[in-house]
From TrEMBL:
N-terminal signal peptide: 1-25
Name this polypeptide is given: Uncharacterized protein
Family, as annotated: Belongs to the glycosyl hydrolase 43 family.
Organism: Apatococcus lobatus
Keyword Hydrolase in annotation: yes
Keywords: Glycosidase, Hydrolase, Signal
Gene Ontology molecular function terms on file: hydrolase activity, hydrolyzing O-glycosyl compounds
GO biological process terms on file: carbohydrate metabolic process
Length: 436
């Protein structure tokens, strides 16, 4: 009896240390002091972190992680077509969770930042709330949350917006709309260095159309979507846009559209926010090689710049490893992404569009002095466990970095003939889209 008790205690402690069990009062993740891929992560009270499709706001030296609370039974549903039926899974919305941390390793549950409490038709329990993103507006001193709002059949395709005076909420829901009259699914927010904010949507005109990416500017208070969006990707049917900036380059990491199943990531780069965006293909790198084509069994959701000393060009990519049969069991895969740049000209005046300025530039006021660089390599590196503050394995340490050009995706000739290039794609299906 005593023997079996001792054995069971030892097994529990071991499981806790390995991060496989809920350990009240301590986070298994913290015990390791590492980010561990594809396991349940625990908060500082031992609760399983429910923050899927998540994003991060860094405010006053604190990281705020917002995500979908999927701690509800997974439902099976279908779309009935004349000749076939498509089955999919979902969870009814509970709300948007918020967790806080000072080190990206130890998380405190701040509770539900936006509750699906029935106070608005978008917040009824049967609805869908996905991929929350939050920005702080300096002017209004409000935190502004945008969220993909849908019904159980994903037929609404709207963006909802909520505001709060505190990062942890409660956010006051303001309503929803289709951004620039397009059906929008996955999206992200992006704040430019000058404080202007944008929303990037995976949009479509009709439900079965392939999605194209639109870049919409937000109003000065971040609470309204302005007209005339830029079409930054043609209808390639990419989802889950992750937009970030490094030096004077913009990076748009995307997934394919396969419901909850993982697929190959594709990253695009541009020298101006409005594009043109060029594909660099799938950035997955390192072992296990057989996981490259499915983004290490995950779908990227958000990017955070990492400031590890002596490690420029490193971002943490937050991704979800979805469990489609039981979505609340989905886990997180956070990996380092490394960008290396090649210096083209040490210091040069460039216009905001990224073109080298010339002497007869009509608007010299738009020019800024920057190092003119080109992207040399983009790699999303596999790690089963790593420390975001010191575990980047830079050149000269444990990982042998092979600098060299990543495979740049060549567009099929037929595609180029149809769309020209990735520059805003074909003529948009309706008027009002800004073609740049
Ligand atoms: C893929 C999207 O990226 C997810 O956020 C979610 O909407 C699923 N589709 C639903 O099937």
């Amino acid at each position: 009896m005593l023997m079996s008790l001792a054995l069971s205690t030892t097994v529990t402690v071991l499981l806790c240390l390995l991060g496989f069990r809920k350990c009240s009062g301590a986070s298994a993740w913290t015990l390791k002091g590492k980010i561990v891929s594809g396991e349940h992560w625990l908060d500082d009270e031992g609760g399983i972190i429910q923050a899927h499709g998540g994003s991060m706001l860094f405010h006053n030296q604190t990281y705020f992680w917002y995500g979908e609370n999927k701690d509800a039974p997974t439902e099976w549903r279908s779309w009935k077509m004349p000749d076939q039926e498509w089955w999919y899974t979902r969870t009814p919305a509970l709300g948007i969770s918020c967790y806080s941390s000072s080190d990206l390793l130890n998380w405190h549950n701040e509770g539900m930042a936006l509750k699906a409490d029935g106070s608005h038709e978008d917040l009824e329990a049967g609805q869908t709330l996905e991929r929350p993103r939050v920005l702080y507006n300096n002017l209004t001193q409000q935190f502004v949350m945008w969220v993909h709002v849908d019904d159980a059949g994903y037929s609404l395709c709207r963006l909802g917006m909520a505001v709060s005076a505190a990062p942890t909420g409660p956010f006051r829901y303001q309503g929803s709309m289709q951004a620039n009259d397009q059906r929008n699914g996955d999206f992200t927010l992006f704040k430019e260095d000058n404080g202007t904010a944008y929303v990037v949507t995976a949009s479509q005109k009709q439900s079965m159309d392939p999605r194209f990416m639109l870049l919409h500017e937000l109003s000065i208070d971040f609470q309204r979507v302005l007209p005339n969006p830029f079409r930054i990707l043609p209808p390639l049917d990419r989802e889950s846009p992750v937009l970030f900036k490094y030096e004077a380059h913009y990076f748009l990491l995307t997934s394919g559209s396969t419901f909850w199943s993982p697929n190959a990531a594709e990253i695009f780069t541009a020298r101006a926010l409005e594009g043109p965006y060029a594909s660099w293909g799938n950035p997955c790198h390192g072992e296990p090689m057989d996981q490259h084509g499915i983004t290490f069994s995950s779908q990227a959701s958000f990017a955070i710049p990492l400031q590890a000393p002596g490690a420029p060009g490193h971002f943490l990519i937050m991704a979800d490893r979805w469990q489609s049969n039981d979505l609340k069991e989905s886990t997180y895969v956070w990996l380092p992404l490394h960008i290396s740049l090649r210096v083209q000209k040490p210091l040069q005046l460039v216009s905001k569009s990224g073109e080298a300025a010339n002497d007869d530039n009509e608007d010299p006021g738009q020019d800024e002095a920057v190092r003119l660089t080109a992207v040399r390599r983009i790699a999303l590196e596999w790690r089963s466990a790593w420390d975001p503050h010191s575990g980047l394995n830079l050149p000269g340490t444990s990982l042998k970095y092979r600098e060299g050009r990543s495979r740049v995706h060549r567009l099929p000739v037929a595609f180029v003939a149809r769309y020209g290039s990735y520059i805003h794609g074909p003529e948009p299906p309706d008027a009002g889209l800004n073609k740049g």
